[in-house]
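STRUCTURE REQUEST FORM
Protein name: Keratocan
Source organism: Oryzias latipes
Requested output: structure tokens
Priority: standard
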Amino acid sequence: MARLQNLLCIVCLLGLAATQDMPYEELAAQIQACPKECRCPPNFPRAVYCDNKGLKNLPKIPPYTWYLYLQNNLIEALSSNALQNATQLRWINLNRNKITSEGVGDVLSSMTNLAHLYMDDNLLSSVPSPLPASLEHLRLSRNRISKIPAGVFVGLEKLSLLDLQGNKLMDDAVTEVSLKGLNSLVQINLAKNQLSKMPLGLPPSTTQLYLDGNNIDKIPAGYFKGLPKMAFLRLNNNKLGSSGFPKDVFNRSSILDLQLSYNQLTEVPLISSGLEHLHLDHNKITYVNGSKICPVSVDAVDDSLNESVPQLRYLRLDGNEINPPIPRDVITCFRFLRSIVI
Ligand SMILES: *[C@@H]1O[C@H](CO)[C@@H](O)[C@H](O)[C@H]1NC(C)=O
Ligand SMILES: *[C@@H]1O[C@H](CO)[C@@H](O)[C@H](O)[C@H]1NC(C)=O
Ligand SMILES: *[C@@H]1O[C@H](CO)[C@@H](O)[C@H](O)[C@H]1NC(C)=O
Ligand SMILES: *[C@@H]1O[C@H](CO)[C@@H](O)[C@H](O)[C@H]1NC(C)=O
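Status: completed
Returned output:
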């Protein structure tokens, strides 16, 4: 009788599933295989919700799952048995569990459709390896990662986002050898690690580089020459003084947003006309000379309305030792400036 009820229930739910393109037999198999600890919404049958359940082990994942929610549990290992039938997985959220590097095993590499893997707030000591070539977003923030295995990203031609913030990476872990293969990388977050140098081996596709909260005190000459798409650069809370980098290192037309708050700068660095946002608050700047920091000649700004007009819209200078008022030539130069905090 209970069985009949189950069956009836599945049949009645099938009507709701019309929105998702899934054959009848697959839908039935999917709903029947739903683990008792999880929720498998019939109108969204590709998703399986097993989050916030105090789970210590992976439940058996149904075969047609694309989206798997396992965040906020106590899972220590990824059992290949539990994932055996789930060959179509595209998206796994394992944030806030207790997974160790030993616990990952090599089960990930067999997930040939996996595009998004989230493992923030676990106990990993190394970037999991091997990873599937289908991966697009990899989030590993706030683990204990100190190692990136050599060549782990080789073949990952689709990986565009790599989040490694809040780990224990030192300079020798982030190298040409360890980052090799990230040919489509757009965003890399290495904030709150233990770097004292700029990372080496970033691919030319890199657009967003986040390095806040490290111990970086130098930027080598021409560092950004190999990074022609660099647009968003965050170096807040480091140890950069004005003598730690060549004067023109940030004079790159691709850079739109430059954040250097909470460093030890004594001067405003040279910027390009293209820069739109500049954060220099909480440094040791005592004086701003508008004509010196203007990317073009201040006189030329007056009578030109073309692309050489400095694009700066937002400027923060608070927490320095600058006395108001804002020098008039700053306003003359940056005529698009909408907001200045001093
Ligand atoms: C995998 O699918 C087979 C066939 O439906 C089933 O017998 C088996 O229990 C499933 N295994 C897991 C781990 O879900
Ligand atoms: C900044 O870069 C531009 C373009 O490469 C160059 O023309 C300009 O002279 C540079 N500015 C300074 C002050 O070095
Ligand atoms: C500001 O910089 C310009 C160009 O470097 C220089 O000629 C001028 O004397 C400076 N102004 C002050 C008040 O220091
Ligand atoms: C832009 O304005 C500057 C300064 O007036 C001038 O030298 C330059 O030729 C102009 N460029 C274009 C493309 O109009």
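Reviewer notes: Residues 1-19 have pLDDT under 50 and may be disordered. The CA atoms of residues 209 and 233 lie 5 Å apart.
Form closed.
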